[in-house]
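ARCHIVE CARD
CATEGORY: sequence design from structure
SOURCE FIELD: tokenized fold
FIELD CONTENT:
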């Protein structure tokens, strides 16, 4: 007897039919009593769904084999789906709730086909897996467009139908718990990290655009890379091993600032015995204690804000403090205080170059406080590494270009006197301190045949008269 699979199409259809995905579909049901009468309608949400059943959460348990009449709607389907079902599993859950597994007993073939098609379009984990497999950096879920990946800097749509309002909401809400949904509905914004399966992790931002729930998913690489693997200059390791002061990683969105900070924390973790406290929004890379103790606190989950957490951090015996991003004057003031009291602070800032990074630090303060801020920043800052990812020559990947400023007496004086415009020329002549400009980095990449002449000039127009 031949037990092999006779038709691959049938095999994959069966796989899809048995696939269970996260969902946030509104479900109503009535319990059917032994005499055939129905109890009052109960409304809830499915936590996941397959073509054979759903999983819901209730405040009160149901008995195994309880018969149910269920009704729910699926995106792009006009009529509700009605199904006779029964309870096959009951499990206790946190918050005095009960998970109820429901198996479909009677379902029309056309309804089952609709569920299978719906599952294929609602499987957000599958979309995220594709994003990671394609080595894309981001996945965008936006209204009236198919899912779109950012692949080597370009926007590449997936081969799917555009997403409507309901599909978007169901897709994104399927990975949120009740607390996250409540927070999002209150503040209209939500940042968190999501790991659907081991070795697959994303930084997620959920937001509203013209009334539609939309989401951006940033791929977090599973393994921490070394400074060398990232293409960072060796001086970054020296900055990571400083005992005190502020080290800023600057760059535009998507330039790998968080990855660089994680690599620096990893260096400290391997080479020093330190208490490292990381304040992140959200936590992206998960560190394992080696020679150091690493405490990772997520804004919004473990603490209220960067500024609040930072003040408390100074009482937690830290040697190193990582602040995910400098956003306000209070946070910057506390960072300066931490540096002045003998701590190393690693942080990031959205800025395209060193001068703008310093100017932005100063401009965070009210005008009447900026002179004092210049003095404090000049005294506590140890270095700024500015980075950006630029297309490789083959356009199929990107490579890191950097600018490094190390604090010298000359640069400290420029900052104190508000003469930041003088800093680029000081960086140009600071090779003995391992400084270099972004133009020099791009020029090296060009002569190393990593990037094209056009790319080098696009990112540093002054190179047009230098490179041949």
């Amino acid at each position: 007897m031949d037990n092999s699979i006779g038709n691959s199409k049938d095999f994959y259809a069966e796989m899809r039919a048995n696939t269970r995905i996260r969902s946030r579909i509104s479900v109503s049901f009535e319990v059917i009593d032994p005499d055939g009468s129905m109890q009052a309608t109960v409304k809830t949400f499915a936590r996941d769904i397959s073509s054979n059943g759903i999983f819901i959460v209730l405040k009160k348990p149901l008995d195994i084999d309880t018969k149910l009449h269920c009704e729910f709607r699926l995106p792009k389907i006009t009529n509700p789906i009605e199904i006779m079902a029964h309870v096959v599993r009951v499990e206790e859950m946190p918050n005095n709730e009960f998970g109820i597994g429901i198996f479909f007993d009677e379902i029309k073939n056309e309804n089952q086909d609709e569920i299978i098609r719906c599952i294929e379009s609602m499987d957000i984990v599958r979309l995220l897996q594709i994003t990671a497999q394609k080595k894309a950096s981001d996945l965008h879920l936006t209204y009236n467009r198919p899912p779109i990946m950012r692949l080597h800097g370009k926007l590449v749509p997936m081969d799917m139908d555009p997403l409507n309002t309901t599909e978007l909401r169901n897709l994104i809400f399927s990975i949120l718990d009740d607390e996250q949904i409540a927070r999002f509905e209150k503040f209209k914004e939500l940042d968190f990290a999501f790991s659907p399966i081991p070795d697959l992790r994303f930084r997620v931002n959920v937001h509203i655009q013209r009334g539609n729930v939309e989401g951006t998913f940033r791929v977090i690489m599973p393994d921490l890379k070394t400074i060398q693997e990232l293409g960072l200059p060796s001086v970054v390791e020296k900055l990571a091993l400083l005992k005190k002061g502020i080290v800023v990683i600057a760059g535009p969105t998507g330039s790998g600032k968080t990855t660089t900070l994680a690599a620096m924390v990893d260096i400290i973790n391997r080479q020093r015995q330190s208490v490292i406290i990381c304040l992140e929004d959200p936590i992206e890379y998960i560190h394992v204690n080696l020679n150091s103790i690493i405490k990772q606190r997520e804004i919004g989950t473990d603490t209220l804000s960067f500024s609040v957490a930072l003040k408390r951090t100074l009482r937690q015996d830290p040697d190193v403090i990582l602040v995910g991003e400098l956003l306000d004057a209070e946070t910057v003031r506390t960072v300066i205080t931490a540096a002045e009291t003998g701590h190393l602070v690693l942080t990031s800032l959205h800025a395209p170059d060193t001068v703008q990074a310093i100017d932005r630090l100063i401009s965070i303060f009210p005008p009447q406080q900026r002179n004092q801020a210049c003095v404090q920043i000049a005294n506590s800052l140890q270095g700024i590494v500015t980075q950006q990812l630029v297309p490789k020559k083959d356009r199929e990947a990107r490579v890191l270009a950097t600018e490094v400023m190390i604090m010298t007496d000359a640069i400290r004086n420029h900052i104190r006197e508000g003469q930041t415009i003088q800093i680029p020329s000081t960086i140009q002549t600071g090779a003995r301190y391992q400084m270099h400009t972004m133009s020099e980095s791009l020029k090296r990449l060009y002569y190393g045949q990593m990037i094209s002449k056009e790319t080098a000039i696009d990112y540093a127009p002054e190179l047009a008269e230098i490179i041949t």
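CARD ANNOTATION: The first strand starts at residue 21 and ends at 32. The longest helix spans residues 257-271.
SHELF: design records, drawer C
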